[in-house]
User: Fold these one by one.
Assistant:
Number 1:
Amino acid sequence: MKKPLFALLCSLCLATALAAGVYESDPNHTFAWFEFDHLGYSIQRDRFDKVDASVSLNLQDQTGSVRARIDVNSISTGSHFFNQILLSDAFFDAGKYPLITFQSTHFTFGKRDNVTAVEGDLTIKGITRPVTLSVTHYKCMMHPEYHRMACGLNASAKVRRSDFNLGKYVPLISNDITLYVSIEAIQH
């Protein structure tokens, strides 16, 4: 009975040690999207197809940091017409502000070294505001294809469009939006 428990403890220690390091996002499995109420008719969801992130993680010390960049020009609404509206100076002003950035300031860890929240600074259109991402899914393990450690998470946060000079058509289109991120990152 002691042998299986010892093996389990050793494997947990190994997984924790292996998880420490720097991770680069997998562009095929990393996206950001947002949803908002459109005139009360529906909840619309639009996404950014190009997101890159670098994550530093040390589970043993329960510390981490993340730096993410979103290419505003990769917005995908499903409509060329609406893409152009959102890229215009009335909204994201992609010509002047081609990137949305997030820089973490604090990671919160729960049981079993899982990340439960990431606090940081979100910058849109040159305006920086604090944001807390609530982590809904988190996992680190050996990647079966790359044979390196990989971590993934899903998280969300509520923000107000008007806080980032994106308030056109409020209140017809909701000021409060939900941001979502899905990231998979491979140890570098």
Number 2:
Amino acid sequence: MQLSIVEISKPADSNVIVGQAHFIKTVEDVYEALVQAVPGIKFGLAFCEASGPCLIRRTGTDPALEQSAVEAAASIGAGHVFVVMLGNAFPVNVLNQIKSVSEVCTVFCATANRLRVIVAEDGDGRGIVGVIDGSSPKGVESAGDQADRHAMLRRFGYKQ
């Protein structure tokens, strides 16, 4: 077995969700979950088929985000992995809907940060071992940092 780290490229100001599902129907069901969750959502979705023709299945509402999702899925190259690139929505707006799709087994991450995926390969296939999301902590928040966090959540409309 060989381990590698795959850097995920994504468009500026976008978020990415990486997960694993178990059936080709995932593509259509996750698409429906996303468009129902946020009207006018812009996203791209790619799903790595794990048997049969082993294609990267794709869909979305934005061609550039769809292409980015395909490129990320191809670089991971692990069966049954899906990648969602979000444009005008945050993961918090869609994560529960994605997790409620019956084919979805797990969500590895949902982030706007720099993302690295740890992949194991055994010569016959690949799988995700884990992810490295962003950077390590540099300290503990101060009272000023807490005030900034509270203000940001209210600016985004998540708290009143």
Number 3:
Amino acid sequence: MKRFLAIAALGLLVAAGALAKETPPYNPQADAKAQVAHVLAEAQTNHKPVLLFFGANWCEDCRALAHDLATGRNAQLMDAHFNIAKIDVGNFDRNLDVVNRFGNPIAKGIPAAVIVSPDGKLLYSTRAGELSEARSMSADGVYDFFQKAIQSVQSAR
């Protein structure tokens, strides 16, 4: 029994270490204006819209959404349809000029997302905190949410 408990404890320590090494989704040192310019330039080339995520590393919902979007069919959906940038908003005090450029989608919480055409026109925005409970959404819920956003953008064109 002691051996089992020791092995179980070791397993928990290894798992905790792996989680601690996970790369945070938002880079607080990144130049947000340069990030946006870069993905818009990519969009001009590959003709896919830009998806901007606004969030922060301290935000559990932001981290949960970033994780869900980086795996499985969500990652495939993102890759197939968007050029993506993640903009760090700190404690709602960082990169607010970029946030406001796209209609202040963080007013009701983070994470927030906007979809922008390759020429910079706002096509879609979360304005009511739609993603602010992302940790409660399943991977399928995240997929369905962005599938509807894609359909909304495509029907508006």
Number 4:
Amino acid sequence: MSARPAPPTRRDYVAWRTVTTRWRDDDAYGHLNNATYYELFDTAVNAHLFEASGTNVRLLPQIGVVAETSCRYFRELGFPEPIETGLVVDKVGTSSIVYRIGLFQGPGDQAAAEGRFVHVYVDNARGAGDRPVVPVPQVIREAVLPLLRPAE
């Protein structure tokens, strides 16, 4: 059996956002509900795209749809403390972008959780059900290239 990987640290991320937790974010066990982690990942990525591109990404003719997500949990998070989200891009492909999002709560340097989030870009002209894969729009590419973490 292999050892569990160590949690990533703050230095592993490039862009930051602080999110306020809400009472309803906790589940019956008193910690952040699993679905809320995924909402935080989605918000971290899309808020960055809106701000860095200066564009309402919902209105672009090509949109990013979520093709893959995952989460590694290292310790519990919960209300009432805010959560810091760290964002980094692992890969910018022809039609996809691979993000990692670290969630931090409190003064520690290690992430409480890390998500993997993959956007694949599709043509949105005909709406849901008929969206062929297309290249990442230039405005999005320019917004995420600064998030690429150089190999160390």
